[in-house]
Amino acid sequence: VIATAQAYAAAWGARFRASLQYRAAALAGMATQLFWGLMRVMVLAAFYRSTTAAQPMSVEQMVGYVWLGQALLMMQPWYIDREILEEVASGQVAYQLLRPLDLHVHWVCRDMANRASAVLLRAVPLCIVAGIFFGLEPPPSVGAAAAFLLTTLLALIVASTLAAVVAVTTMWTISALGVRQMVGTLAMMFSGVVVPLAFFPAWSQPIVANLPFALMMDVPGRFYTGALPLAALPLELARGAAWVAALTLLGRGLLARAQRRLVIQGG
Amino acid sequence: MTMRDTLALIGHYYRASIRSQIQYKASLLLLTLAHLLATGIDLLGLAVLFAHFGQLRGWTLAEVAVFYGVTNAAFSLADAVGTGFDRFGTLVKSGGFDRLLLRPRSTALQLAAQELTLRRAGRHRRHGRRLRLCGAIDHPGHAGLLDHREPGGDEHHDLWRGAGHAIPRYHL
Lengths: 267, 172
Fold this sequence. Notes:
Chain A is mainly α. Helices cover about 75% and strands about 0% of the residues of chain A.
């Protein structure tokens, strides 16, 4: 068991170090995200100015939420490890299947490493710039900061298990571009990146809150800004754990089915 | 090279590009659909905000949607025609640009004619529908809209009138 865990950890580390190399790409990405973040803050601020009614989050909380949305943008599952997809399309996945590792766990590990490094590379400089110039404030309490870190970690696991499900669908469709775009679009809308989920109509709140996408940005963002009290932490963790379990089962089930009828051509 | 000759050449290129894209019908359909969804998301976001806040300093969702539609339609048209330039980097890296240099025509023309992206049709189509919708909603209440427009917003208003009247008619 220890040797297997070490193998997964090694795969994780290798991925993480490899993607940390693309610093210029991360910097360019950060510049784009600064622009988008500013635009979203300005649009929302204009709406705030046009009303006197009480809002579900204060202006300061909204600003913090929008910046966190930009910082955690690479967490969203519209970004999926291209290598995994290409491996399936090119048939290289046969080599992965030969390894004494579980393909699903291996994929999730690789995806998590990619996602974590991509988020870190962008989030750290973005938060510094947004903190100095654009009104991003530190969390109101140590508890809020801890809840934010914990739920961000959970977001990483949920996003990676979901990405693995999407990756498995390439076994049927080769390009999976359609599935990827659909999942990506849903994720953008229902994670709170486009519009904070708090502004969604009241009737849709129970639905939106229970989708896995809310866990990927909305929940960490609300804990960070203090819009969600610490008492809500156990519920969110339970929701996250349930989604991880469900997505893992789905991914493994689909992969098992795909492997039963898998033919590697030319070998 | 006469103008006519150039246009005929671009026509040839585009025909080839379109023929190659419609070879994969399911893929094209899915991509167009995904594209439609992806651009629709922003509008859905706007709709959510307007549902929550009611209005934005006297502007309603329908009015803002017209602006969004006009800008987006213009962008997608430019994007559909300009995809070739998007690929310039890849072309240079792969050495494909050398082939373009060898041909006795301008490289800009050849780049522009590389592809006429069909999946962008998802965008055009949606804007058509949206503009029609907005036109229908706003035609009767047009005079009323003038009243609650902020002073100094004349320029916007003219633009809006242009968009609200001319374009929906065109699409109808």
